[in-house]
Design goal:
This protein is mainly beta and 259 residues long. The chain has a single domain, classed as Porin, CATH 2.40.160. A twelve-stranded antiparallel beta barrel has the order 1-4-5-6-7-8-9-10-11-12-13-14. A hairpin with a 5-residue loop joins strand 10 and strand 11. The radius of gyration is 19 Å and the shape is globular. The chain starts with a helix and ends with a strand.
């Protein structure tokens, strides 16, 4: 079902006003801390590719952190992924486990982050796969408040197809003074050993990108909006229109409430 952008925005603003999200994470014993987020987006793009055939998505995530750096969480979203005779996957539910360590005394305050993600599609378990990730993030490289992130992801069962796949990602965010606005830019590269993203050229790799602007609302803590252009370089000649729209560059608007 298609929703207008106005209706999508109104729905999230209403939920933020009526649902009791705590502005601060609840105090927990044993060095634990709880956090989460809820978002609405006009298109769920995963590494540049639409997971909802360009339809809107509602996404919710919860995470539990320990003072040692260990963390665990789960993230979910509606999807629309055709899966042959198994039908269509309508839900993605991803549990994950990781460890993060920030080196405060080092320039750029590098943060090492490693872990494992399990991409699960209830009712379509043949799509499920495990992915391992490692990344390093930096802060204040050019100006106060900016951040640079790097990541390497690997799976030996891409989309449940028993295929090796690597993802390399690079992202940068920079605030525009104290306006609440910030610029965002990301680029990523996916490569596999068999899977063809472009059936015509039989290309087993592609680039994805994202560039846009985010705004942090001062009147509602943890509430933000983002407008970005997201796309890939996957060849779309002689492909169905739904596939073409899902990989070509398009505008994506997202509202998020973190708590």
């Amino acid at each position: 079902m298609k929703f207008t952008l106005k209706a999508l925005s109104l729905a999230l603003v209403t939920s933020v006003s009526t649902v009791a999200f705590a502005d601060e994470a609840p105090a927990l014993p044993f060095g634990l801390e709880f956090s989460g987020s809820a978002a609405m987006t006009t298109d769920y793009r995963f590494r540049g590719m639409s997971q909802t055939e360009n339809d809107p998505a509602v996404q919710v995530g919860f995470q539990l952190d320990h003072a040692s750096g260990l963390y665990a969480g789960v993230w979910g979203s509606n999807v629309y992924i055709a899966n042959g005779d198994a039908g269509v996957a309508h839900l993605e539910l991803d549990p994950y486990l990781g460890y993060a360590k920030t080196f405060e005394g080092v320039a750029g305050k590098p943060t090492l982050d490693v872990g494992v993600y399990y991409y699960a599609y209830p009712g379509n378990s043949d799509l499920n796969f495990v992915e391992y990730y490692a990344g390093v993030g930096f802060e204040g490289l050019i100006t106060e408040g900016d951040s640079l992130s790097t990541s390497v992801n690997y799976t030996n069962d891409y989309l449940g197809l028993d295929i090796d796949a690597w993802y390399l990602g690079l992202g940068y965010t920079i605030p525009f003074a104290d306006t609440g606005f910030s610029g965002i830019a990301n680029i990523g590269y996916t490569t596999t050993d068999k899977y063809y993203f472009d059936a015509a050229s039989k290309d087993d790799s592609y680039w994805d990108w994202k560039a846009g602007v985010a705004y942090e609302f001062k009147s509602i803590e943890g509430f933000s909006a983002e407008l970005a252009a997201v796309g890939t370089n996957i060849e779309t000649k002689n492909t169905p229109s739904t596939y073409k729209r899902g990989v070509e560059t398009g505008a994506v608007f997202t509202l998020t409430k973190s708590f």
